[in-house]
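2024-03-11 09:14:02 DEBUG pipeline.ingest accepted 1 chain
2024-03-11 09:14:02 DEBUG pipeline.ingest length=96
2024-03-11 09:14:03 DEBUG pipeline.predict start
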Amino acid sequence: MHDHHSDNAGKSWWSTRSGIASMFFLTAAGYFLFTEHRAHIVPYLPYLIILLCPLMHLFHHGSHGDHHHEDPERDDRPSRQEAGDMKKDERKENRN
C-alpha cells in the first residue's frame, strides 16, 4: 500500500502546486488592485505615514526590552536601579 501523505512530508503548503498557484494569483490580484486604485491611495500616503507613528508606538512599545514580565526573583539580570548603581561605581573606580 502506498502512502500518499509521505510525498509531502516536510514540505510547506506554499511549495506545493496549489500553494504556488495561490501565490501567483494573489500577487496578480495585488498588482491590479494597486494599479487600478493608485490614484485614490497616493494622495493620502503622507497622512497614512503620520498615522503609523502613534500606531507603531502603541503596538511596538513592548519590544524595547525594558518591560520585565517574568518573576523578578528568578531573573538573574540586575534591575535598572542596580545596573545604574553598578555603572556609577565603575565610573568612580575609573577616576581613582
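2024-03-11 09:14:41 DEBUG pipeline.report Residues 12-60 form one domain.
2024-03-11 09:14:41 DEBUG pipeline.predict end
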